[in-house]
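Slide 14.
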Amino acid sequence: MAVIIDGNKARDEILDQLAEEIKRRKLTPCLATFLVGDDPASVTYVANKIKACDRVRIRSRHVHLPANTSEKELLSQVAKLNKDKSVNGILVQFPLPKQISQQKVMEAISPEKDVDGTHPISLGRLLSGNESMPACTPAGVITLLEKATAIKGKHAVVVGRSNTVGKPLAVMLLNRDATVTVCHSKTKDLAAITRQADILCVAVGRPKMITKDMVKKGAVVIDIGINRVDGKLIGDVDFEGVKEVAAAITPVPGGVGPMTIASLMQNTVRAAVLQKGSR
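Slide 15: predicted structure.
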């Protein structure tokens, strides 16, 4: 039976450490968040981020805009905060309404304030081995993996190739000397590949896609998926079945989700330190 990897516990440890670091360094970090519209999930995500800011004494500035906000208006607001030296990090909650280009918004945020780690420059730095501002969810996954197993020399399979999770996670695993295979919707005989994985990370947004027969005995399984089914949150992995063969596994909820927020707080503190040093 698998060990359950507790993301809430890992998050709490990181937040406690950050609170001490902020006090020791005499920092006054500030994170600005944007929410466009009233998507219930997004409202909850932003509220959790603000709550984490309060816990570690990061100042938060929240900008809530109506769903009919134009792309020009949002970009203008982001540009203002790019210039505001009191703001260290900027995060725009996705998804955005259809009239706004997510890519344009990501590229509009100053790389020095890109605490979500999704700007092309941030991703380019990551590819070159510079993890000063890594994408939040992959960074959280790596933290959990490092607590659960040795990564060096392992065969890691990443199911999913998004620019925000799959691709940066694959690079971060490579940076730690794993042998990495990336699978996606066009991969033939997915199960044959996932059964080779010492480390299996899944981020595709399909409920219970990974079943017990697709997992190598003794693998470490990280479920990054969040799907709402019949009012409940479930992952991309069939948790009950897979935990019988895996050595360790993350639950949904309570696994990767809390770590994404912890990573965001870490990036905000890193940004504050880097910006303080450059002044």
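Speaker note: The longest helix spans residues 256-277.
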